[in-house]
Amino acid sequence: MSRTTRPPRTALPALPRLALARTGLEIRQFFRERDAVFFIFAYPIVMLAIFALVFGQDGNRVGPEPGVPFAQYFLPGMIATGVLLSSFQNLALSVSEERDTRALKRLRSTPMPPSAYFLGKTGSVLVTSVVQMGLLVAAGAWLFGVELPEDPDRWLTFGWVFVLGTAAGAVCGVAFSSIPRSARSAAAVVTPVVIVLQFISGVFFPFYDLPGWMQQLASLFPLKWMAQGMRSVFLPDAAVVLEPAGSWEHDRIALVLLAYLVVGLVVGVRTFRWLRRDDG
Fold this sequence. Notes:
Helix 2 runs antiparallel to helix 3. 39% of the residues are buried. The chain starts with 14 loop residues before the first helix and ends in a 9-residue tail after the last helix. It has one domain (28-56, 65-279). The chain is mostly helical. A two-stranded antiparallel sheet has the order 1-2. Helix content is 69%, strand content 1%. Strand 1 (61-62) and strand 2 form a beta hairpin. Its main location: membrane.
């Protein structure tokens, strides 16, 4: 009597390969949602155009003489907003939808490790954010005459603020996705948070013009620090006097963004739900 031989178990690919494959899938899924792609990519450019055209009339400038052109001052805030939209808002909404449609439940039952899913989300956010930043910076330079920095150190600052801000926004978006009770309510919960942060963080108005209590409130959230870090890249050195602290505070920017990255990871791991509330 012959023994039945079991087929050999096929080992899963290494985590980096799984994460890369998941990143590619997430990117394809993102670009299929054309309305979301248009809003996320076009919104910062449209807002920059509005502020540059409305407030920059007759050569008006920001700050004391000689001042900074309006488009140049508002570009850093729009870059920070773009990071927030691509990372925090995009993931908070998309993960909520995947949970509601039980896509997460199906993924959880596959051999794919959860870390590959989260790395794929983060990778897709980084890729789409790079595309968005390229479009926004190009629009600022070509359409509104924003002078781009020539100092490599400024681009190095741009790089670490962008990467830390995107990573922190991504993990916080995944963690925040557990708050809405359903995908239908997710937009009503997430969008007001994003809008309020934009108003208090020096995105729509010069930060130094905001009331002191509002500046203190904004300092509790990462968008204010991302915008400040980006201003240190695109504004002249003399513009540092427009900052309430009289300094770009690069060390504090890095500390706050790292803190949000770590806290977002811890909270996300502890509160993330693969199932809908009515799934038990």
